[in-house]
Design goal:
Structural class: alpha+beta
């Protein structure tokens, strides 16, 4: 298998390969350090086991990206617009394109069950879980539509610290999260169509709804 490189979408200074490697496209200089074009970016394992790289987007500013998603976005077609990337062998460090596939949240969970990767359920999969899907949806609405901070949501709903961000990022209650995002996108499309008609009687109200519905669409 030949290693193929492609420019990372939205990050033209970086390339990702079908082997799961990431490198720079241009040379970079930072104080006394010099990095020639083609320098490989070291991936770091996150707390949940996924390999991530840091892209420098501005002086003193970095953005963290998961390697498996970079590879999937660059090399694997996703005609059904599935939201998650699965490691076929269960090894989160193996980001070769042959080991990755686009899946739904349910398919991802089923794969984990079938391969024994989820022998010790956590979060919503525990038998003693105390939060409901209704609470999770409330968290998502407060964040995406009311623009409240995760810390504010945790205080108002009496949630454990750092639990709301896991829900907001789709790392807990993945099926509820996926359904919420899908419904929100459909709602956003509907509101945009209404706004395009420019009805004078409710134009400002519709415009506000468009802003509210789209503000965090890409996050």
């Amino acid at each position: 298998m030949i290693e193929i490189w492609k420019v990372v979408a939205d990050y033209p200074d970086y390339e990702v390969s079908n082997f799961g490697s990431v490198r720079t496209v241009i040379e970079r200089k930072f104080s006394y350090k010099y990095f020639p074009a083609g320098t490989h970016i070291a991936a770091v394992k996150s707390n949940n086991g996924y390999m991530r790289v840091a892209f420098r987007v501005a002086p003193g500013k970095q953005e963290i990206k998961s390697v498996h998603r970079l590879v999937a976005n660059a090399f694997i077609a996703n005609p059904e617009n599935k939201p998650q990337v699965n490691h076929k062998d269960g090894n989160k460090e193996n980001n070769n394109v042959l080991n990755l596939e686009w899946v739904t949240a349910k398919e991802n969970v089923n794969h984990a069950d079938a391969t024994g990767l989820r022998n010790h359920p956590t979060g919503e999969y525990r038998n003693d879980v105390v939060y409901s899907a209704e609470t999770v949806n409330k968290v998502l609405r407060m964040y995406f539509f009311d623009f409240k901070l995760a810390s504010e949501i945790e205080t108002e709903l009496n949630l454990p610290k750092s639990y709301a961000p896991l829900i907001i990022k789709g790392q807990r209650w993945v099926e509820v999260y996926a359904n919420f995002i899908k419904d929100r996108e459909e709602y956003c499309t509907f509101v945009k169509k209404m706004f395009s008609k420019r009805r004078k009687s409710n134009r400002h109200k519709i415009e506000l709804e468009v802003i509210r519905a789209t503000k965090y669409m890409d996050k």
